[in-house]
Structure prediction request, 119 residues.
Amino acid sequence: MKRLIEKTKRRNRRKKSIRGKISGTAERPRITVFRSNKHLYVQVINDAEGRTLLSVSSQSGDTKGLRPNVADAGKLGEVLGVRMKDAKITSAVFDRNGYLFHGVVKAVADGARKAGISF
Prediction:
């Protein structure tokens, strides 16, 4: 149990460091990813106003049933990119939320890039 607590503390320390350096604006909102063992959640946030502009998850809508693996994370990223294009958002900053930029997190970013969003 102590190992999991230490792992969470390390992730939170990385998350705090990252969030001190990046921030989302109206022109370039922040895309943040949260992954659990069962689901993926991605939000597009305008930090200047403190508002969530868009959100996509593997729990609701047309993306329901997607698993937190690399293939499904790419699909989730593409859906996010299409919704961002519909909302006239073409560029953003990517917040990996303390996770390593590898695997599922990288697949979400690559899916959004494939849909035409620039980071």
In short: The two ends are 37 Å apart (CA to CA). The first strand starts at residue 30 and ends at 35. The chain has a mean pLDDT of 95. Helices lie at 2-21, 70-86, 104-114.
